[in-house]
Structure formats: structure tokens, C-alpha cells
Amino acid sequence: MPVPLRPAVSALPAYVAGRPAPERGDLVTYKLSSNENPFAPLPEVLDAVAEASRAMNRYPDIANTRVAEALAARLGVTPDRLALGTGSVGVLYHLLQAVCGPDDEVVHAWRSFEAYPISVLLTGARWVGVPLGPGAEHDLDAMLAAVGPRTRAVLLCSPNNPTGPALRHDEVLRFVDAVPDDVLVVVDEAYVEFVTDPAAVRGLEVAEGRDNVVVLRTFSKAYGLAGFRVGYCVAEPRLAQAVRSVALPFGVSLPAQAAVLASLEQEDALLARVAELVERRDALVAGLRERGLDVPDAQGNFVWLPAGPGTTAVAETFADAGLVVRPYVSGQPGDGVRITVGETEANARVLEVAARLGRAGTELSEPPPTV
Ligand SMILES: *Cc1c(COP(=O)(O)O)cnc(C)c1O
């Protein structure tokens, strides 16, 4: 007889990662499917990693002390409010493990970050997906109405992956003040460095003085360290300690810790790259709209094409042009394609393909012809 799996585990959907770009003889291909940073690592960061690798026979500092101190100074919080993990997805797993179990519920928007349902199901809890409202934004009123006696946590994604808009600060304040204070509210700010909307939520301010609010951040996107897996939360000290207790010991490797420290030292150079990506993003959104595509506000390093029933065909049209994008196909309303802001050449090609899609690329239309 096979070893029985926990029911929560046998029912888990697989995480669908963005596909890599295939090699092609006829043209340069681009991976625009995982919201990665297209810039190569800075030499200073590479040097710090090489130096740290010399001690790979030793375990890393289990408490991430230097990283936590540098980050705490940078964020203006005490180090006991920080917990680091293998990506902010790792930290989210730990947070939910610390507060949820079977028969509990976790409320989040849908469509939203694909890791959310998996992180909830792993704990044995159920996810309650609240459909996005107009503009592909969170519907906070509907989310509040979905909070019930079994709700242990609410996940807010700002800007929302994969659709792009940020949550508004005043609306989040109203939301958290209406949610019972024993319900964890996670504000996932994976793309906060790319946000330019002045009304966008400022997670750290929301968390200030509210013990149930936790902010999630990552070094994967703006800082270009996706392959090293480092993320963190800012939480009230007791919750931060709970995350550390649940976490895999030594989860953040020595080279990864060194890369984060070097990146914080090189922050100006890295944020200049972010500013460049923000310019490219805004140009991409404007260009797509000029070509008749109905693109929602984009506050991350990606844009959303609400392609509806045409989603698979749209993604194939991009793939034929050497651009790997990320289709979200459920057969329900709200399907679409997410495109990461990438190399200048890749973005220009996105616009060329988009010109061929025209209106056919947007929701409620016939699947477009593959050109
Ligand atoms: C990319 C992303 C993360 C961070 O992932 P890591 O595990 O830190 O690489 C978290 N939340 C959202 C919404 C994301 O898109």
C-alpha cells in the first residue's frame, strides 16, 4: 500500500512557473513570463557573493543578523520585527503555518498571485477567492464581506500580480480597521519599489501600531535576486518570532545573505534601474493602449492583457515572435496574459505583436487570428 499523503497535499495544484525562452536560430528570444529583473547582477554584488562562497563549508548565520540589522536601519523598524525566509513566498508559507489549520479560511482576491491558494491549502485551510472588481482591482468591500468566523488571514496583493493595479492607502486603512484584530492581514508588497501611484498603499504605515498587519517584501524583483530566494516580513515582534520558529533553519544561504547586504549598499544603482524599468513600463502601457488594447493600470514590472477566451491564442502569437509571456487560462471570465517589462528590444517587439492583435486581444472578443 502506498504511503498515504495528507489530503491537503494530495489535492494541491502545481505551481505553474513562467516558461523559459527557447533557443531559436532565427531571432533572439526573451523570457517575459516570471517578472524577473532583466538587468545582469552588479559587479559589487557578484564580488560579495564570490567572497561569501569561500565559506560554503559553514552554515550561514541562522538569525540573518547582519541582514536584519541593515534592513531594519533602512526601513526604520527594530530588527525584532523582521523575519527572513527563502523568498517572500517562503515567509508567507511560514506565516500561514503559524496561524492556520484545517477548517480555517484565508480570504484573498482572485485572480491574484498564484502561490496564494497553494500556501493556504498546505496548512489544511481553505482559500476563499474574491473576484476582482472593475479595473482588475481588489474588491475590498466584497473581501470584507467574505471575512467570517473561520477567517484566520486575509492576503492583499499590491500591486496585484498578475493584473497590475495597486491598492489605495485610504481604502486599506478602512479595510484593516473593519477586520477583527485577531485576523492576520498580509500586505504583499513584492513590487513596492516600482509603484508610482501616489495614492498607493504604504504597507509599513498600515502595519504601524496594528499588531495583526504584516508586510511582505522580496529581493527577487527590484533587487534582481530572484535566483537567490530572499524575502522578509515586517511584523509585530511576536509574529516575527513565530515565523522564525516555523522556518526551515538556515534557509537563507550565505551567498544570498551577502548578496542582500551588497545590494543594500548598492541601492542607489539598483533603484536607478528600477526607475528605468518604470519608464519602460509606462511606455509599454501607453503603447498597448494606443494599439487598442484595454490594459489596466500597471504599478509593478509587468502589464496585463485581459485577453479573455483569446488568452491561449494571444500567448501563442507572442511565442511565435520569440516572446514567452504568461497566459492565465481558467475558462472563466478574467483570463489574460501577463507580460513582464523586459529588455528594450523585447518591449519594442511586444508592441509590434500587439499592433497585430489590435482589439482582438481584449476581453469579450473572438479569439484573435494567430499571425
Ligand atoms: C514575485 C512575488 C513574490 C515574491 O516571490 P519570492 O518568493 O520572494 O521570489 C511575492 N508576491 C508576489 C505577488 C509576487 O509576484
UniProtKB/TrEMBL annotation:
Catalytic activity: an aromatic L-alpha-amino acid + 2-oxoglutarate = an aromatic oxo-acid + L-glutamate
GO biological process: L-histidine biosynthetic process
Start and end residues of each Aminotransferase class I/classII large domain: 31-351
Cofactor(s) needed: pyridoxal 5'-phosphate
GO molecular function, one term: pyridoxal phosphate binding
Record key words, sorted: Aminotransferase, Pyridoxal phosphate, Transferase
Function description: Aminotransferase that catalyzes the conversion of aromatic amino acids and 2-oxoglutarate into corresponding aromatic oxo acids and L-glutamate.
Name of the protein in question: Aromatic amino acid aminotransferase
Gene this protein is translated from: pat
